[in-house]
Design a protein that fits this description.
2 domains; mainly alpha; 5 helices; 0% strand
């Protein structure tokens, strides 16, 4: 019988790609609101600090595969043409996830530069409009 770790490892390795796809699908207006609500509810239940009844088998290790299952069900129930389009955008690094990630990285970089300048007693540089390389 395979160990729990050997069964969970492939799921954990799949989580980043499934998570990125779910992020893009969640932001896409063509995905039904009921699917989005079901995903939020499932993940909210898993991450909730409230104690669940003892008959619900939900420990820390079970939360990872259950979260992945919730994300996979969400991805699998989204309209097929939207999933195909979002997967292609992810492969080409032009998805909503990629754009938002670049925005976050740039904001953090600017904040770090401003903090460094402040610590050195310099006036922080004005925010520069940097062209996005992959729009």
């Amino acid at each position: 019988m395979p160990s729990l770790l050997s069964r969970v490892t492939p799921l954990v390795l799949e989580l980043p790609s499934q998570g990125k796809l779910a992020y893009c699908l969640f932001r896409d207006q063509r995905v039904p609101l009921r699917s989005k609500a079901a995903l939020v509810g499932a993940l909210g239940l898993l991450l909730s600090p409230l104690d669940l009844p003892t008959w619900v088998p939900l420990g820390q290790m079970e939360a990872i595969p259950l979260a992945l299952l919730a994300v996979r069900v969400f991805n699998d129930t989204a309209p097929a043409e939207v999933v195909k389009e979002q997967r292609a955008a992810l492969m080409e690094q032009r998805s909503l996830f990629d754009k938002d990630w670049r925005t976050v990285v740039e904001a953090v970089r600017s904040a770090v530069e401003a903090a460094r300048a402040t610590l050195r007693g310099q006036e922080p540089k004005a925010l520069e409009a940097r062209p996005n390389q992959k729009e």
